[in-house]
Amino acid sequence: xxxxxxxxxxxxxxxxxxxxxxxxxxxxxxxxxxxxxxxxxxxxxxxxxxxxxxxxxxxxxxxxxxxxxxxxxxxxxxxxxxxxxxxxxxxxxxxxxxxxxxxxxxxxxxxxxxxxxxxxxxxxxxxxxxxxxxxxxxxxxxxxxxxxxxxxxxxxxxxxxxxxxxxxxxxxxxxxxxxxxxxxxxxxxxxxxxxxxxxxxxxxxxxxxxxxxxxxxxxxxxxxxxxxxxxxxxxxxxxxxxxxxxxxxxxxxxxxxxxxxxxxxxxxxxxxxxxxxxxxxxxxxxxxxxxxxxxxxxxxxxxxxxxxxxxxxxxxxxxxxxxxxxxxxxxxxxxxxxxxxxxxxxxxxxxxxxxxxxxxxxxxxxxxxxxxxxxxxxxxxxxxxxxxxxxxxxxxxxxxxxxxxxxxxxxxxxx
Length: 415
Hints:
Blueprint: H1 19-32, E1 35-38, E2 56-59, H2 62-69, E3 75-76, H3 89-96, H4 105-116, H5 119-143, H6 148-153, H7 155-165, H8 172-182, H9 196-220, H10 226-232, H11 242-273, H12 275-283, H13 285-300, E4 305-310, E5 314-316, E6 319-321, E7 326-330, H14 331-334, H15 370-387, E8 392-393, E9 398-399, E10 408-410, E11 413-414
Parallel strand pairs: 2-7
Antiparallel strand pairs: 1-2, 3-4, 4-7, 5-6, 8-11, 9-10
Helix pairs in contact: 3-11, 4-10, 5-7, 5-15, 7-11, 8-9, 8-11, 9-10, 9-11, 11-12, 11-13, 12-13, 13-15
């Protein structure tokens, strides 16, 4: 186990450690240093000059993450919600869009986007979840690769999102590759050579180009789909700009695909570790489906952290923060907080209550796609456990070396 002084959340080597070692480190922080400060990470292999900062404060307790999330007027998202360091504005726009905005812009964007998700459009999306789940499981059972991430966890949410947004099936591989690069943290499997920062910019630019073409087509020839609703939605004489639409797509592809993919992969891996929980689900899935999905999301915590920047001085749990300071809300740690959960290191598909922050904490930035993610997971596990009740991992997961996404790149499995 690492000592407190050996824990460095800004060091990429820390995030290459096994999950249990990382969880042990966060348990130690919650107990002894619930708010701790780290220097900016050292960025290697990049010719891009980033401004120097004063590091960040890591928040590891459930109560502190909750308080920060409920005070967006103090803890700002606009300077960047998904980067440890300050990025150029164009990169913030590319990679996070709406989640890196504050009111009134955030409220405007959320109103326009929410208006596109009408009951009719949502019914269409939910119908596609059932259809795509059937197709993905059928392909996997008929001749899969033996890798759960490749066969099921990755293609399932990606196909739903691309179908929802009207992206041609011919672009699926491109969209998946770009998503992998954006969240790779420089992982050599996804960025084998070159500069990771430039690779991320290029991937985002590629996704932007795809959405610009789709958006232009749907402005001229609208149909009853989400993209048509987005590009033509008008709230109080306001519409999404082309860049805002593209940024929303990058966010949707990245957040919607990666988070559901990660939760599904962790779900199977965890059921392999707790086979008695899988037996409970197989025996009575409909009763346990809701709590099981929430527990899988808590256990996985796909998005590890989000950042906020202080607009003014603030004292948090007796810790003095200054205007301009950056704080990282570590959702993974909050979701194992002994003060918030009974037996937090026990996986229980019937856990209730379960006030997890797998979709973010309460506040204006709570995940807009939480309902869709829950629907996707509920449907997929119903299909899998009914058609392949003995599905199980056959080896350890190959984890993504990232501080931001708790990803599983590969997971061998059998039915």
